[in-house]
Here is the input.
Amino acid sequence: MKIFSQGVFLYIICCLLPVFFLGCASLSDKGQSGSAQSLQAQSILKFSDLPAPNGFKILPKDSYSFESSGMRVGLLRYRGKASLDQVVNFYKEQMPMYNWTLLNITEYGDCIMNFEREAESCIIGIVPKGDKVTISIAFGPKAPLLPKKTRPVVK
Here is the structure.
C-alpha cells in the first residue's frame, strides 16, 4: 500500500509540474511585454500625417477639424490602454516620420509635446488616468513671425 501511494504521489507531481512551469512562464511573459511593449501606428487615420497608436479610439464628441484652401485646424482626441511612457515614446518615434520636428516636452504627471514643421504647429497632450490614456492632438497654422522691434539705445 505504501508503494502504491508513493507511485500516485509521484504520478501527480510529474503531471502537475510541467503545467505549473508552463503557467508561470506564460504569466511572466505577459507581465514583461505589457510594460516594455512599443506601440504601433494605426493604419487608418483621420489625417495621414498625424499618427495615433493602434488600439486607441477617436472620441468623436470631443474632436473637430476644419480644412480649407490648404489650411487646417483641429483637435483630435483619442483614448486607449497604454502607459504614459509608451505613448510619449510612440510620438517621439512617429512624428519625425511625418516631417514634424520636436520642439519641447513638458512632463509633470501629464505630458505636453510641441511639434512644428513648415507652416504648421502641433501640440500633443497626454493624460493618463488609471490604465487608460487620453491623447489630445491640437494642430493649426503657425503664427507669422513678427519683426523684432528695435529699442533705442539708452545712454
Notes: Confidence is low (pLDDT under 50) at residues 8-35. DSSP finds two helices and seven strands in the chain. The longest strand covers residues 71-81. The two ends are 111 Å apart (CA to CA).
